[in-house]
Design brief:
This protein is of the alpha+beta class and 89 residues long. Helix content is 40%, strand content 16%. The chain has five helices and four strands. The chain has helices at 2-6, 23-27, 36-45, 49-53, 69-79; strands at residues 9-13, 21-22, 61-62, 84-88. The N and C termini lie far apart (28 Å). The relative contact order is 0.28.
Length: 89
């Protein structure tokens, strides 16, 4: 039972790692087959959709560090569609 429950939890650390590249490339590390519509959906859930629409959309380049890196790391957990994820600061 415990192992089953642990498989349903995604851990997102405050210093969650993202890679230098586009928003889409980073998000597809969690779900390589995610359609653009799904990526925009999770961006909306953490209120980053407008920010990236103002820039280059899913092609917006992001770096390993920055104020939005935690939120982008959190998106990876949302793409996994697990019922629970822990956010540690």
């Amino acid at each position: 039972m415990r192992a089953h429950c642990l498989k349903k939890v995604t851990l997102v650390k405050s210093n969650g790692y993202i890679f230098k590249g586009s928003v889409a490339e980073n998000l597809r590390m969690a779900d390589k087959d995610a359609a653009p519509e799904r990526l925009w959906e999770v961006l909306r859930q953490v209120r980053l959709d407008e920010l990236f629409k103002e820039r280059d959309g899913l092609d917006t380049l992001i770096s390993e560090k920055g104020r939005q890196s935690f939120r982008v790391a959190r998106l990876k957990g949302l793409l996994l569609q697990e019922p629970c994820f822990l956010s540690l600061k």
